[in-house]
Write a structure and sequence with these properties.
Blueprint lengths: L2 H4 L6 H14 L3 H8 L12 H7 L5 H9 L5 E2 H8 L4 H7 L2 E4 L2 E4 L1 E6 L2 E6 L18 H9 L5 E7 L5 H6 L3 E8 L2 H13 L5 E5 L11 E6 L22 H9 L4 E15 L5 H6 L7 E12 H13 L6 H15 L3 E11 L7 E5 L4 E2 L3 H16 L3 H6 L1 E4 L3 E10 L2 E11 L2 E2 L2 E4 L1 H8 L2 E5 H12 L3 H17 L3 E3 L16
Parallel strand pairs: 6-7, 6-9, 7-8, 9-10, 11-13
Antiparallel strand pairs: 1-3, 2-3, 4-5, 10-12, 11-12, 14-18, 15-20, 15-21, 16-17, 17-19
Helix pairs in contact: 5-6, 13-14, 18-19
């Protein structure tokens, strides 16, 4: 029987509930597993530590058995498996494709990871070494964490998870969405998503097979999230990685099509890689993608890699088990980049908001060095801040407005030794959560900002600062307005007469 055709599914719905109950009773959750293994996080689980981990999971408890079979890729005895999953029959696990049985031992065919009070199943890396590698379904990687942390968590009537993979983004969105449609070109990924929705008791998630937006035809969404096959490669070997289109056309096609599926005020957030060409500003190139889109757009670039580094990184991702092929594949990728004129590759998040009107704006910035915990509220703030800045009008409106300093702001001073003692060399404002921006200021500006508690208009604070410095007030106005504008955009300040943020659900830390 072909496990690829039948996995993952239970013939009886009650069996998936029994499996979840067995995992819960055993304590199969983040903290318990990490304590058992003596690890700080799951990425530090390495195959080279197997002897140590076998010793730590040798007690025969249900948790140790389940960790071995679903996390460590280690066979367990049928007796221990039966005890761990009772009253679920081990035969049901075999028929579902979750385990293979050889003699009196069972071996897991998937990995199951606890993540933020959910359980997520996905393919084992060893599938990449088999003839079935094309439909490999990856788990929770760095890109998954990034998109989860940056997603706007407003209540949503309908959410679309485009390129769902194992379903992580759609399942997270299900917590603040009435319905979720999760789609993927890979039927195996869709089956994983449906299985994971059932394993977590989420009945508002529908999974469907289809190419990009096709399964969503005729529908509109308040939120679209996508972690697509964005890698810019000359190949089409792996569905999760290769979009099968020239250059960055996969990402471009998604953001060009998305507006037609967004409700008014709806957001589309896509993790992208894009081509960068020598002599061409990447911001100008991306801006062309959104002309006439009917959307405001913010691009946050997280990194840029030269073409050679980019190629080497992704080839080693999948070909580390075939080192003899690395050099050949590297030359193939580089020849492709040279033909396309690709100098480097940018990576980051594109956030689009559909809005009626004609004066749509486009921003493209480098992301801050640190992103601490959930950042969806900061993404939303950036859009409402730009709205305010556009509608605030002349400088008199600004000076008449009061501002509040974000309570997560900290003032940092740096000193260096000198002949006369410690000499101050830098003063910076930093954010301690979300998009942790850092901006250099002087002491006078820092003192003005400390008085931004929402009770006094900016013009009054500027007058007080001018008096304390014994300078003409008018000479301070332009630099103060420039500084305040930058701080509003980066989340340090919020105008007290803000247009108001849509209600947000409580954000969770997906780091």
């Amino acid at each position: 029987m072909d496990t690829n055709e039948r996995f993952p599914s239970f013939k009886r719905h009650g069996d998936i509930l029994k499996l979840r109950d067995a995992l819960d009773r055993a304590g199969y959750r983040d903290s318990s597993i990490l304590d058992l293994l003596g690890l700080k996080d799951f990425p530090s689980l390495r195959g080279t530590d197997l002897p140590l981990l076998l010793r730590r999971t040798g007690g025969g408890s249900p948790l140790e058995t389940l960790v071995r079979i679903f996390l460590m890729e280690v066979p367990v005895s049928m007796d221990s498996l039966e005890a761990a999953v009772h009253p679920l029959e081990p035969g049901a696990l075999l028929r579902s494709g979750l385990v293979e049985i050889s003699g009196d031992e069972a071996l897991g065919t998937v990995r199951i990871i606890p993540f933020q009070e959910m359980l997520l199943a996905f393919d084992l890396p060893r599938r990449l070494k088999t003839p079935d590698h094309r439909d490999y379904v990856m788990g929770i990687g760095r890109s998954s964490h990034t998109l989860a942390n940056l997603t706007v968590r407003s209540p949503s009537r309908a959410t679309l998870d485009l390129g769902c993979g194992c379903g992580i983004q759609g399942l997270l969105a299900a917590r603040h969405s009435e319905t979720v449609l999760a789609v993927d070109l890979n039927p195996r990924a869709v089956r994983f998503t449906a299985f994971n929705a059932g394993l977590n008791g989420l009945d508002n998630v529908q999974a469907a097979v289809g190419d990009r937006f096709k399964p969503a035809d005729g529908r509109r969404f308040d939120l679209i999230v996508s972690n697509p096959p964005f890698v810019i490669s000359p190949e089409n070997q792996y569905t999760y990685r290769d979009g099968g289109m020239i250059g960055d056309e996969m990402c471009r096609s998604i953001v060009k099509t998305a507006p037609a599926y967004l409700r008014e005020g709806g957001f589309c957030q896509v993790l992208c890689n894009w081509c960068q060409f020598a002599g061409q500003d990447w911001r100008e190139r991306l801006a062309g993608w959104f002309q006439g889109s009917g959307c405001d757009v913010w691009v946050l670039r997280s990194e840029t890699r030269d073409a050679a580094t980019y190629a080497s990184t992704w080839i080693q991702h999948t070909e580390h088990h075939q080192p003899e092929r690395l050099v050949e594949r590297f030359h193939e990728w580089m020849a492709y980049y040279e033909r396309q004129g690709i100098d480097s590759v940018g990576a980051g998040l594109i956030t689009m908001r559909r809005r009626s009107g004609s004066n749509h704006w486009f921003r493209a910035d480098d992301a801050p060095e640190k992103m601490i915990g959930p950042c969806g509220r900061d993404i939303l703030h950036a859009f409402t801040a730009r709205d305010w800045l556009q509608k605030a009008g002349d400088r008199e409106r600004w000076l008449a407005s009061a501002f509040r300093l974000n309570p997560d702001t900290r003032l940092e001073q740096t000193f260096q030794p000198s002949r006369d003692g410690w000499e101050e060399i830098e003063v910076r404002l930093t954010r301690t959560s979300g998009l942790a921006h850092s901006i250099r200021v002087d002491v006078a500006a820092a003192n003005l900002l400390a008085r931004c508690d929402g009770s006094r208009p900016l013009g009054e604070l500027a007058s007080a600062l001018a008096a304390s410095l014994e300078v003409d007030r008018d000479s301070l106005i332009e630099p103060v307005l420039t500084l305040v504008g930058n701080l509003v955009e980066s989340g340090f300040l919020e105008p007290s007469d803000s247009l108001g943020d849509p209600e947000l659900s409580s954000e969770e830390d997906f780091s």
